[in-house]
Amino acid sequence: MTFLAIDVGNTRLKWGLYASPQPGAALMAHGAVFLETIDHLADHDWKKLPAPTSMLGCVVAGESIRRRVEEQLEIWDIDPRWVVSSAHAAGVTNGYEHPARLGPDRWVAMIGAWHYVCSRGAPRPVLVVMVGTAVTVDAVDESGHFLGGLILPGFGVMQNALEMGTAGLRVPTGEVVDFPTNTSDALMSGGVNAMAGAVERMYRKLRAKTGQEPVLLMSGGASPKLSPVTDLKIEVVERLVFDGLLALQSHRLAL
Fold first, then answer.
1. CB of 92 closer than 8 Å to CB of 144
2. pTM (2 d.p.)
3. Residue ranges of domains in the chain
4. For the residues 143-161, what does the mean pLDDT come to?
């Protein structure tokens, strides 16, 4: 009953092959490729993998990318299944104004975060921060109800916007420092502190609304840049989207 989890973002495709479709299952193999190279997955990364029994993925990169991934999946006899955000799934309620319009990566990450928190004891509010091409900050209360969230530009998008709109800012990537004294450090420190401020504000709002100290979970390829900046207690969970896909697949099989 091996299970293939796929997370197709705006920049990279991440995949993980699990021993079974249930939370906590052993991760047998995993990898990540840039979207420009996904047409070689069947001949390279996936060529020697044991055939998965089932798969579930989420994709935010568009229909053409999804079709290209499905072409690579043809090396196995499995039906491609992709997450569509719904009003309720795996114990989590979607409070978005139009639930189907919520990005599937955000939805799956929240489900993964909710199950991660519940697996360690009594349910608590959780703030889910995903740091990638975009940064999302999503609040879930102690009952598993998604209250709402923020979308911010990620590091690359933010710096590219400044370089395009401001003369003289085409400089190498800088460091995060308290008091920047050069343009490179000022750009990086400004972007990181803007994101950290959004996280801290949403954390305080969630704490005030629920009357409980939230769990703050962070995931995504660029999370190491952001997590050290805030004074809040942060847990970095490397594969939060995969955790959500495992929870969804396990819940589906149990129905």
1. yes
2. 0.92
3. 3-82, 88-245
4. 88
